[in-house]
Specification:
- It is a single chain.
- It contains five helices and five strands; from the N terminus they run E-H-E-E-H-E-E-H-H-H.
- The protein has one domain (about 1-135): Alpha-Beta Plaits (2-Layer Sandwich), CATH 3.30.70.
- The termini are far apart.
- The protein is an alpha+beta fold.
- Strands 4-1-3-2-5 form a five-stranded mixed sheet, with helices on both faces.
- The structure holds flavin mononucleotide.
- Flavin mononucleotide binds near residues 23, 27, 30 and 92.
């Protein structure tokens, strides 16, 4: 079964572009081989990552990712079976919005802090489908480049 899973985590230190770039490039190669698609969002030292693929593949990847020392506090906040992938064209897309933009996309126009957006999302997972559609539209044409 195809699933879509979303987790949030905290970078152990602010990530320079070069380190983010390495995570992305490495991920894209292995995700291609594992038929995983998704999106990595980085805002103010926090990650939110969408992983799509076969259930067992995504579960094994999440297990590996949660042991990665570049971040901690990995929390799965959303998981659903899907018929079609949202990020089907991306082995791992990348978006780095402001906290305010992310709040708006989550439908939280009065929220400005990332912390409160993530907390609300955790408690109200029904916000994910529309937020993920907005993130899909926000994927820039120009990809992250190493510094
Ligand atoms: C924020 C973040 C996102 C990651 N995303 C992926 C990913 O989408 N796919 C992937 O294979 N590895 C990803 N990784 C890397 C894995 O944690 C792990 O280092 C990688 O799968 C290599 O595992 P291996 O040493 O067993 O080959 C990510 C790491 C971090 C910190």
């Amino acid at each position: 079964m195809l699933i879509q899973s979303v987790y949030t985590s905290a970078a152990i230190q602010p990530m320079p572009k070069s380190k983010l770039y390495k995570i992305l490039v490495d991920s894209r190669v292995s995700n291609k081989l594992a038929d995983v698609t998704g999106l990595l969002v980085y805002v103010d030292g926090q990650f939110l990552q969408v992983l799509e693929g076969e259930q067992e593949v995504v579960a094994a990847l999440l297990e590996k990712i949660s042991k990665d020392r570049r971040h901690n506090d990995v929390k799965v906040v959303y998981k659903t079976g899907i018929e079609r992938r949202t990020f089907n064209a991306w082995q791992m897309a990348y978006v780095s919005p402001s906290a305010k933009e992310l709040a708006t996309w989550a439908g939280l126009s009065n929220t400005t802090t990332l912390e409160s957006t993530l907390k609300t999302l955790e408690n109200e997972p029904n916000r994910f489908p529309s937020m993920l559609s907005k993130l899909l539209l926000a994927i820039p044409e120009k990809d992250l480049e190493p510094e």
